[in-house]
Each structure stands twice: as C-alpha cells, then as structure tokens.
C-alpha cells in the first residue's frame, strides 16, 4: 500500500514511502551518503599518492615478474613472446641461490631474535629508574642514528686482523687473532653482530615506550600479592608487550632483508666473502655485473616472496585487531 498523491514513475517509486515496515532508501540519498562518506571525502589526500605508488611500486613488481619469465640477457631487448619459468627452475636448483637463501634466513632470524631479547633486557633495566638513565639511553640509541656506510666502515676497522680493537683484545687475553672477514665460518656472524650493535637501541626504545604505557598500579598489585620482580615482568608485564614485539620484529626483518647496502659498504663489491652472500647481493651481482637480467629478476621475485612471508603474518595480526 502506498501513500496517496505519489505518481507511478520509476523515480517516484524510488522516492515512495512504504507503509509495510520501513522507508526505502532512494537513489539520491544513496549518492549523498556515498559522497559524504569518509572514503570519498578523504580521496584528495590519498588518491594521487596511491596512484603514483601503485604505478611505480606495483607496476615495477609486475614488470620484474614479466622479465623473470623471459630469457633477457646482455644489452639487447627482452623477448616477451616466449615466456616460461626456466629462470626459476635454474635459480631454485642453483647452489649459489640455496646458499644465499640460507644466509638470508640465518641473518633474518638471528639478527631479529637477538635484537628483541637484548632490547627488552635493556628496556627493563632502564624502566627500573636506575641512575644515569638518560645517558645510558642516549649511548645505546646513538648507533641507530648512523648510516649503514658509517657502521660498516667502523666495524671493518674493529674486525681488522692486524690493527682491529677486537683482535688486539683477543690476542691480549690469549685467545688469538681471528679472521672475522676472511674466514667463512665467522664472516656472517661478524655482519650480524655489527647489525645488532646498530639496531638493539631501536628495540630498546620500542619496549621502553611500551613499558612506560603500562599503569603503575599493575606493578603495585602484583607486588602486593607477593610476586617477585622477575614474576611480575614474566607473567604480567611482558605479555602486554605483544604489539610492541610484533611491530619491532617486522621493522628489524625489513632491515635484515635490506642488508645489501651494509654488505656493499663493508666489502666494496657485489661479491661479499664466502659465507656472507645473501639474496640481495646475488641479485645485484647477476644483474649489474653479468647482465643476466631475467635470472636476477627471478632471484628478486624469490626475495619478494620471502619478504611477504615476513610481512604477511603482521598484516593478518593487524587485521585481526581491526587496525586494517
């Protein structure tokens, strides 16, 4: 049943007010609702950057994927008429790619885990209101302000076999000098240690911010119940730092995957010493030294997949929390 006085046209039908339980949303109100939505009103601020980023980032990823399916080498042009997965088969069966993948994984896991544990320990110590807290905090955070180039050259000097401080100390205590850079058994560990030195201050700040956001009454309530300081942190405080841990871990993993700059600054070549080659250095070497463009593109795709494996769980975690 309709209210009398309304015509029978389609638009009027859309505008008609029904008496069978509700008001039918008309086309005009829908358009008005869409135009006034946060999505549309915010478009002037995000649409242009989104298009630019989509073209240069995702367009570049798509082009890299297309090149990896060709046999493009040298200074000629790629033949996009014959696409296959030959380069991926070669890459996945290559001992160099397998070794570089293993080194990348070890760098990723050890660097991230040690930075998180060390940063958390430092944050807990500083959260206890010790003397010279600000000075200690500045000292640990200072390496984070340095570039990869400065850090690489600093630790190259520290690891020097003849004049490096570390080898002088090891020689003085009777352990003997170690070829940190020249020995494949130590070179990856030396690189990871230098990166930990640079980024542990970052995780310290992340955890310290998380600790200081926890209400003080939780400490007092747990202490009143007779819990020791260790139990308070282990069972009450640290579980509340889950978000800080996830965010810091993702940032550290991304830096680990971008370690090419650090390795190139330390060794000055696309080919780092045996035992420290990672997927990023292998990709650049194949592309700009040997002009194996399609093979390098396949390695780059494998590196991208590894990065997605890292960032994927974080995005899912943020989605579960309603942050995406």
Topology:
Elements: H1 10-15, H2 27-35, H3 38-41, H4 43-68, H5 86-92, H6 95-127, H7 133-141, H8 148-158, H9 165-172, H10 184-212, H11 216-224, H12 229-237, H13 242-257, H14 260-267, H15 279-288, H16 293-320
Pfam families: BPD_transp_1
Transmembrane segments: 45-66, 105-126, 138-158, 186-208, 244-267, 293-317
Region (Disordered): 1-21
Mean pLDDT: 84
Order of helices and strands: HHHHHHHHHHHHHHHH
Percentage of helical residues? 55-70%
The DSSP helix count reads 16
Uncertain residue ranges: 1-17
Beta percentage is under 5%
Evaluate the radius of gyration: 28 Å
Biggest sheet architecture: none
Q: Termini distance?
A: 44 Å
Label the overall shape: flat
Note down, in words, how this protein is organized.
One of its GO terms (cellular component) is plasma membrane. This is Sugar ABC transporter permease. It comes from Halococcus hamelinensis 100A6. The chain starts with 9 loop residues before the first helix and ends with a helix. It has a domain of 221 residues: Orthogonal Bundle (MetI-like fold), CATH 1.10.3720.10. The chain is mostly helical. The N terminus is likely disordered. Helix 6 runs parallel beside helix 10, helix 8 packs across helix 14 and helix 11 crosses helix 12. The protein is flat and about 75 Å long.
């Amino acid at each position: 049943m309709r209210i009398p006085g309304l015509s029978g046209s389609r638009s009027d039908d859309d505008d008609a007010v029904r008496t069978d339980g509700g008001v039918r949303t008309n086309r005009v109100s829908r358009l008005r609702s869409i135009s006034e939505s946060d999505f549309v009103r915010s478009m002037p601020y995000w649409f242009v950057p989104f298009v630019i980023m989509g073209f240069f980032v995702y367009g570049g990823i798509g082009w890299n994927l297309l090149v990896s399916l060709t046999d493009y080498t040298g200074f000629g042009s790629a033949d996009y008429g014959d696409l296959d997965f030959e380069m991926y088969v070669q890459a996945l069966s290559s001992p160099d790619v397998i070794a570089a993948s293993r080194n990348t994984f070890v760098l990723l896991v050890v660097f991230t885990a040690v930075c998180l544990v060390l940063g958390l320990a430092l944050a807990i110590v500083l959260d206890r209101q010790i003397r010279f807290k600000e000075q200690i905090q500045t000292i640990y955070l200072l390496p984070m302000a340095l570039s990869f180039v400065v850090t690489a050259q600093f630790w190259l000097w520290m690891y020097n076999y003849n004049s490096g401080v570390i080898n002088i100390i090891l020689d003085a205590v009777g352990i003997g000098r170690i070829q940190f850079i020249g020995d494949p058994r130590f070179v990856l560990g030396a690189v990871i240690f230098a990166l930990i030195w640079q980024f542990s201050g970052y995780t310290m700040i992340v955890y310290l911010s998380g600790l200081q956001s926890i209400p003080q009454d939780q400490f007092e309530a747990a202490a009143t119940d007779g819990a020791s300081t260790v139990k308070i942190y282990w069972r009450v405080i640290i579980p509340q730092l889950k978000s800080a841990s996830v965010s810091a871990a993702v940032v550290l993993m991304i830096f680990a995957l971008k370690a090419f700059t650090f390795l190139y600054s330390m060794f000055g070549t696309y080919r780092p010493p045996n035992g420290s080659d990672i997927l990023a250095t292998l990709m650049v070497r194949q592309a700009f030294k040997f002009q194996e463009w399609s093979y390098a593109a396949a390695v780059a795709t494998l590196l991208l997949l590894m990065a997605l494996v890292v960032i994927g769980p974080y995005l899912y975690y943020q989605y579960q929390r309603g942050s995406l």
